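Protocol step 4 of 5: obtain the predicted structure for the target chain.
Materials: sequence only (see below). No template structures provided, no constraints applied. The aim of this step is simply to have a reference model before the mutagenesis design in step 5. Sequence pasted as it appears in the construct record:
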Amino acid sequence: MLLRLPSQAKPQDWQGAVEILIRGLDAAEVTGKLWIIRGQQLLEYQAISENESDSKI
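Step 4 output (structure tokens):
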């Protein structure tokens, strides 16, 4: 997980990021994924498995 907060983050910025993280953890599986929390967004990236990458070449 990567938190992208303002350079002069205020306590409410941290609180908002933690609340988004908690909601995300309640809703989704995180194994093998990269989560980026930016502002009020949770962006999710998942690695391509070896089998999937072989079929696209």
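Step 4 remarks: The mean pLDDT is 83. The helical segments are 11-27, 50-55.
Proceed to step 5.
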